[in-house]
Specification:
The complex is a heterodimer of chains A (about 700) and B (about 425).
Chain A: H1 5-10, E1 21-22, E2 30-34, E3 39-44, H2 56-71, E4 76-81, E5 86-88, H3 103-121, E6 125-130, E7 133-135, H4 137-143, E8 147-151, E9 155-157, H5 171-178, H6 181-190, E10 194-195, H7 196-202, E11 207-209, H8 211-222, H9 232-239, H10 241-258, H11 266-277, H12 281-296, H13 299-317, E12 327-331, H14 335-346, E13 350-354, H15 358-375, H16 380-389, E14 390-392, E15 404-407, H17 413-426, E16 432-435, H18 442-446, E17 455-460, E18 469-474, H19 480-492, E19 496-501, H20 508-524, H21 529-539, H22 545-552, H23 554-567, H24 577-584, E20 599-600, E21 603-604, H25 615-634, H26 641-652, H27 661-668, H28 670-684, H29 694-697
Helix pairs in contact in A: 2-3, 3-12, 4-5, 5-6, 5-12, 10-11, 11-12, 13-19, 13-26, 14-15, 15-16, 20-22, 20-23, 20-25, 21-25, 22-23, 25-28, 27-28
Chain B: E1 3-5, E2 9-10, H1 20-33, E3 44-48, H2 59-66, E4 74-78, H3 84-97, E5 103-111, E6 117-118, H4 121-132, H5 136-145, H6 148-151, E7 154-155, H7 156-160, H8 170-181, H9 185-204, E8 214-215, E9 221-222, H10 234-238, E10 260-269, H11 271-277, E11 283-292, H12 301-312, E12 322-325, H13 330-341, H14 343-348, H15 370-373, H16 380-394, E13 399-406, E14 410-418
Helix pairs in contact in B: 1-2, 3-16, 8-13
The chains are: A alpha/beta (about 700), B alpha+beta (about 425).
Amino acid sequence: MTMHTTTKFAQEQLETGSDTVPVAGKWRHWKRRRDPGGVEWLLFDKADASTNTLSADVMAELDQILQNIEAEPPRALVIRSLKKNGFIAGAEISEFTGYGEGEDTEDVVRRGHSLFNRLEGLKCTTIALIHGFCLGGGLELALCCDYRIARSDSQLGLPEVLLGLHPGLGGTARLTRLIPPVDAMTMMLTGRAQRSKKAKALGLVDYVGEERLFAAAVGAAVEGKLKTRRAGKKISLMNWGPVRRFLAGKMEQKTALKVRKDHYPAPFKLIDLWCKYGGSKSQMLEKEPAYFAGLLGSDTAKNLIRVFFLRDRLKGLGKDSKAAISHVHVIGAGTMGGDIAAWCAFKGFEVTLQDREAKYIAPAMKRAEKLFRQKFRDNGRLAKAAWDRLVPDIKGNGIAQADLIIEAVPEDLKIKHAVFSDVEARMKDSAILATNTSSILLEHMRDDLKRPDRFVGLHFFNPVPKMMLVEVIEHDTLDPAVMAAMMGFSAKIDRLPLPVKSAPGFLVNRALMPYLMETMVLLDEGVAPEAIDASAEAFGMPMGPVELADQVGLDVALHVAGVLKRDLEQDLPDMPGWFAKKVEDGHLGRKTGQGLYSYENGKPVKNKEQSKVDPAIADRLILPLLNTCAACLREEIVSDADLVDAGMIFATGFAPFRGGPMNYAQTRGIDDVVDALKSLEEKHGGRFTPDAGWAGLKR
Amino acid sequence: MDGARTPFIKARGRPGPFTPVDLAVQAGRPLLLRQPIPPNAFDDVILGCVNVHPDEVNPGRVAVLRLGLDTGTSGWTVQRNCASGMQSIDSAFRAIQGGHADLILAGGTEALSHSPILFRPIMVDWLADWNSAKTLGAKAKLVARLRPGHFSPSFGLLRGLTDPVVELNMGQTAEVLAHQFGISRLAADEYAVESHKRLAAAHANGHLEELEIMIARDGRAYDHDDGVRPDNSVEQLAKLRPAFEPPFGKVTAGNSSQITDGASWVIVASEKAIKKYGLKVLGRIIDSQWASLDPKIMGLGPVLSSTAMMVRNDLDMTDIDYWEINEAFGAQILSCLAAWRDEDFCKSILGLDGAFGAPSQDRLNVDGGAISLGHPVGTSGTRIVLHLLHVLRRNDAKRGVATACIGGGMGGSMLLETA
């Protein structure tokens, strides 16, 4: 896309008041200005950061500023961010990791509480002027103001639950009094952010508009003429004891359907807090810090915060790339190719999607339309623009224009070579050729290439819109600049790049296969599929391995298992004969309606009575996975244990509250893991032999 | 110069999957993809479109923005009814000839299936009264006044195809010509059958090089003009009831152009632009001509405009290798040919010394025409110019004329040569 000079001119500047003069005092993170009418603009611009977060020093400065304001109150106070990306993204999460359980954590939380209480108690009119992100502590701060005015691009939310927490700066008490508690609790239980329009409908913000209207909107608020619409009666009714307790019971039931209380305590604690104390704002405010501090000390929160930083680390790997990629050409419009193309178009890239005939591309376009509609549900214009960026291309005209060409044709070396020779003849010198192979070694593919230095692996996971990880596969003749460009590209399409060496199955599939193969051995031994799935889910896997195999497709699983058995020296179990027979008979899993389970309306038919949880089964499944992760580390396929954890969590959903496989092994104790493997080895043979890599992992 | 078009999709009684600009984007993207032209290089974008969608006022400019061209590229829309898509090319040609521009994207688009269904004036008046009624009583009175007749819709498409001055439907103008030149129902039907055969053969032989595939949001793939009926026979067509002047008329749905949706673009470039960007050249525009006549016989427009253009360029029938005459109606095409052969007509109307002669059928619409692939009104002009260039190149021929009759009583012609 080109940026015409007029487009730049058309962008509106942040409204920060007119004729304002600085207020005496010097602050690192804040600017204070007052206008002739006595309205103070308190402008938040966190030093050395691109995003505003409420770190300890920011809060300390705010404390001093509030003292000044209390001493010399303005007519009104407007709080606004000077960052482009938004208001405030939340607390400074890196400061969460220092706290243990108990008293001192609660003290820190209480200090924040009293600061926010003072903001809420200011005598003057207070207005939060919001744009972009307004999340977590940021929204809690805005909730202390009399008015919230939001630009139309705002997203307001309390996502603490995703870190195993709930709001801890008074948000639980204030939100359940500003908007109907059912909406408030839903926001906090799901962590989902609300866009401006919805936030206005909920009563969370009082006015939605653009920069050009903000001066007038602030003026109206200062004069007390800004109309607010709050559902007062509905709110008090829902907060009334009997109704509240009934609603809390319903919420608990609904939440239990989604997550287990033993794995994810935060939502249940939040419901408990509201149920017990929601009748009185001051009581709820009083109790919130203890609840919050308790959660902050839990393993779940610690591990989820760790996952948060792993995500940050992977995102950061793509930060330094300066590669200019704007056009992506995808070859092969199957499930993976089609979804990769749609995702790139959704993320703003020009995309051409190539296949032999229109009819092969058509299903991918249909799925793309569904994706765009889902993602841009309140904006048909953006959905249309994404659709316009995705061009079906049976002649491969996009190859000559593309900066990146991603091959996603069937896993057949002959087909791939044919594609590569066509592409290399037409692609730009500066373009990059990537393969989405999941099982073929890059060394085997690059042999006939003219420019092996510009050839790289870019391994996405199914379904692309859900699975955050992309394995970026290196090989010995790859240009490091190309590797860096792919890390950057992955980050640009909002996926998490994981650098991986070219080796059979790379990291994720290699670690996952022993887990799936052991599942088949268990089935062979007569263990009910329901029991296997239930045991894995009780461990914390998002989906049991039997169901997972059906979702991946038994044909794909069989193929990858075969490749790994052939190419790896690792001791792997044989796939039972009946498994190959199922594939032959066309019972491939969910896609055919019949696999290891049979399917009704896309859902597996399970016998609930068989769903007995057995930790020994979980061990037999998980330990081979851990063992393989240790082997991958020893073979330096991935450079450190944190990256292994990141890969397995973001590609397979491996129990995030356990912090990933290697973190789990450390928590359980390496010795214990090795002992457990040894005793399984005695019973079941060499496939459980502890990997040599464990010794080096002991801390 | 290069060009592309979408498949023409038959209107099936309800709005099709694409709006006019949707179609223009579908045709434009693959065309622009294969050009070494940066997005800010076009001086102008001109799009022919007759039935503009209410969400896409000035489709030319909407297309600029949706095609990912530079925001600083202007875009506008031309409307010369059935030749809007030729008018856009002509406007581009004139601008470049005059030295005002070097590179213009010109085309046409039409989604006849999206033609509006309108309220009748009586209902519009009622709605106006309703909006100004203030009291409940006044509103009740208005409700009591409503009759079923208020709700009967008026079809924009039918109204658009009726000449507002002579009050003849386009099909009726073809009936007038068939009468004047003694064109039989059988001849018109035979012509229509041949049109379908030719289009089917062109599809089979890959002769529609300008055709790009198109996929709708519901996942339906369009890779050919779906109005084609290769197994049509004269006997079948003979069974159809005259559509406009039953029971004795000659013009039927079978020997008229079809109502379809589609879009087409061509790139018009100066020599300078061709050199600058290293463009592939399909052919050259030598001249163009518009002519006007009584709306009642609008179908003869091509005869007037083409003859004038050829005379000015010192050309006679033998100098033209291939013809594209837009097939509004079988009887209308045959009337054009008859007129050119008619000594009286040539003398009295065209001011020639004798009969001018007509193109032979094996040089005319060799890959079918609007009867088989449809006539998206704003698009056809671009399609015939673009397709004629492909026909000329395929046959190693030099010179051709693309021409269309225009509802309201006009004709437009363009003289083209391969480069």
